[in-house]
Amino acid sequence: MLKKIAIEKISQLAAVLMEKGTLLAPVKEVSGHNFAEIKDPKQVDLDFYNTIMSPKGAFFPHKEDFVKYKIGKPLSEVEPAVLNLKPAFLFGVRPCDVKSFEIMDIHFDAAGIIDPYWRFRREATTIFGYAYDLSQPVDSADFYNTLGIYAADPEGSDIFMVKKDKELLLKAITKKGENLLPELTVLKDGITADEKYFTEYVNKGKEYKTRFMTLDQEVVAKKLEDIFDNTDFWTKMSAACLSCGICTFVCPTCYCFDICDDTLFGKGTRRRVWDACMFTDFTLEASGHNPRTQVYQRLRQKICHKYSYHIRKYGVISCVGCGRCTRHCPVNIDIYSIVEAALKA
Amino acid sequence: MTDFKKIEENLKTESRRLLKEGLVTVVLAYGKGFDENHPMPYAAKTIADVDSIVFNEYCNYNMARYLVRYPQGTKIAIAVKAADSRAVIQLIQEEKVKRENLVILGIPVQGMKNPKTGEVIDSKTTCGMYNPVLYDILLGEEVHGVKSASPYDVLAEYEKMDKDARWEFWKGQLDKCIRCYACRKACPMCYCDPCFIDQSKPKWADKEPQSPGNMMYHLTRFHHLAGRCIDCGECSRACPVDIPLYLFHKKVAKECEEMFNQQAGMSIEDKPVLVDFRVEDSDKILE
Lengths: 345, 287
Hints:
The complex is a heterodimer. By secondary structure, chain A is of the alpha+beta class.
């Protein structure tokens, strides 16, 4: 099923989705675009390359309250946070980011421990994937081709969207998408030519080249294990690293968090907050010992986790090549170059 | 001004010589990044490493940030532009590095660009100087006769705001903060170990990216830098959400200059204003 709408009428589609539930879509902010809950349909802006922050926050917010409590009161008086389970629509997600949800599902759903917050949000959400604009140049930081992802891959989206001149074509990919699409009455039916355009666009996406290297999972996992002790290599790779948290916060597949108690005058909230392996206190133990005091140890952990341990444990690389970590690094550290150098080390 | 290619050549020649003669064990300069527009801070430790040194208009990093990473006593050569040299001076004043352990390679330059936005970096976000204040070897001709706006001009709008408006302004700006701490990590003067915000006993602020934790972090950091910020603008360039941190630092720097008649990092003979006492110091703050 294929539908379409003029891009200038996108706010009408937004309004329909807002009536049905919560709409999360790209919004232009001072420093660039980010996904945000839409309050005014006019806010939705599809004129973006990719967002600064990844869309992981839609399912795994930067901060998530679990319970409110009072010190000295029995456990029965604890108030668990109530999840807003209205249907949600995550609109305009790039194909590489769509892929990241699958990787994150491993940790929050499939690896034996079910995180209800992640799962419920995932179940309630319909994902509108959005192909990169193939007429625009690719950003030099991107390398999703290396991870086997292409600029117009519909896989993983419930509904996939491509731009056709001044129109947006929407095609249902999953059952969820097929159920929703006919309900969006502002959309017009696509014609045969649109179908053809859509299929061709998806194929053309394969020709839209990002940086590419042949990456054999087994080889890279083994290589990183072998050079774990090569301190010279890691020191060199991390010479510029400031050890800030930007790369992990913008990353769609970084999932580390900290559980914090925020207590004042006997009343408190227990919540989960994103944490980053690049922070000094990330590995600080209660004894005062810290196994990763050096910057090179922390950068090594980040690279090895994504490109070695994750393969060994779950069979996939924990990276989708979206290029955010490289693009937003204040000192231009490039994970792609580090992996490339590691393979040659 | 000497062109970028020539400066790069001089930088390489001097680095090779210093390493070869054993005068230094490391040269802090700029190296190749993933493409030409994205060079990186770089530490050359061997003569072969020097081949990867580059210098172009995107080499805006303040290498003084990396000085405190090396054990005291390490002989270091450091490439500095104008503001960066002030950071080196400030670090010498604060006894984090010793003058005799440094070979300062001065780069007089104008028209540096922010690799993220392509914007020219000028007195809006930095001190707007072109020539290094302190150096041992100059890698190009000093820039003279180019007019530069006062680094405090950008404050005009900000100073029009009253106290309440300023509070609202900063509340709005600091609400954007995602607490990645890139600002403090990019700052050459932020070397506390541990930083107060990382402490858990006492815990000064919560970890989540919202007020009042964001306020606590930034306002404390702002004031820790009073009289010490040398206005290189690295914090603002590092910020992924574009918080104009430079505004606060410039405002405090301006007040320090008015009260104590001293700019941070201008002479190794000075003491940081807030650890120094002079009878003639301003009493304005007590009035």
